Structure of Gustatory receptor:
Amino acid sequence: MFKFYFNKLLSSLKLVYFLALAMTCVMNLKNASATVCSLSECKNPVKTEVLAMFSRSIAIACLLCRITIMYKSKSDFPNYVKKVEDYELYFPVNISQKRHIRFIAIAIISSYIVIILPINVLRIYLIYTNFGKINTMFFYTMMYVHNWSICSTEIHFVVRCVGLYQKFQSINEEMATLRLKTIAGNKFPVVLRKSKRHGHDNTLFIGLETLGGGSPLSMSSNGHQPADHIELLRMKHQFVRGTVVELNDLYGIQLGLSIGLLFIMTLFDIYGEVSVESNVTKTHVLFYGWLLQYSFRFCVIVVTSHVTTTQAHRPKMIITDINNRYADNSTKKELELFLCQLSSRPVEFTICDLFTLNIRLITSAFVAGTTYLILLLQFH
C-alpha cells in the first residue's frame, strides 16, 4: 500500500515538474529578444535575433526532451528496466562491477556539476552586480535550469550505456578464457581415443587445465560442453544487443536534441564573443568555460557510445581464434552462428538513424561547425 501511494506521489511530482518546466520554456521563448536587448545595445535587429536564438534553442530542446521523456516513461522505460533486471537475475552482477558503475556515475555527475555550475553562478552574479534586474536574472536562471535538465538526460544515458558495456565486457572475458585454452591446446594437443565394445566414441581433450585449476577443456561428441558454453554466451550477447537497440530507441530523440543543441550553443557563443564588442556579463573565463562544457558533454556521449559498440564487436576476433580443426562439429556450428549474428546485426548507437555515434562524428562536427561559423559571421 505504501509503495502504491509513493509511486502516485512520485508521478504527481514529475507531472508538476514537467508543467513548471514547460511554462518557463514558453516564457523564455517569448522574452528572449527583450532580455538580449537589456544586456547590450540592439542597434542591429538581425544580430539581436541571432543572439536570442541561443536561449530559444535551449528552451525548445528542453521542452521537446521533457515531452519525449514523459511519453516514453509510461511504458518504454519501465519495460527496459524490467528487462535489464531480469537479465541480472539470471546472470548476477558481481559486487566489484556494481561498485565500478556506481563510481562512474558519481564521477560523471561530479564532473558535470564542477564544469557547469560555477560558470553559471558566475554569470548570474555578474548580471546581478551590473544590472540588478530580477526579470533578467530569472530568465537566465531558468535557461540554466533547462540546460541542466538536458544534462540529466545525458547522464542517464551514459550510465545505462556503461552498464551495457560491463555486460559485453563480461561476455568477452569468458570468450577470451576459451580462446586462451584453445590456443594452448593447439600447441600441445593430446588425442585420446577409446574403443568400446559396441561402438566407438571419439573424444578430444585439450591438454590444458582451466585457469582456476579445474578439469581440462573437453570437446566431446556426446557432452558438447564447449558448444553449450558458446551457445550460452551467444544468447547472452544477443540479449544485450537487443537491449542496446531498446536503449537507442529510448534516448535517440533526446540525444539528437542534446547534440544539436551543443552544436548550436558552440556556434552562437563564438559568434557572440566575436560580434559583441563589450559585455560586462561575459568574460573570457566564461567563454572558455562554456566551450569546455560543450566539448566535455559531446565527447562523453560519443566516446561512451563508441567504446560500448567496440566492446560489442570484439567477439568477432575471438571467435576466429577459437574456431579451429580440433573443435567438434557442434562447437563449430555455434561459433559460425555467433559470427553470423554479429555480422548481420551490427551494434551501434544512432541519432534517429541519421548519425552514428562514434569517434568519426567528432571530426565531422568540427568540420561542419567551422563551415557554419564562417557563414554565421557574415551577419557581423
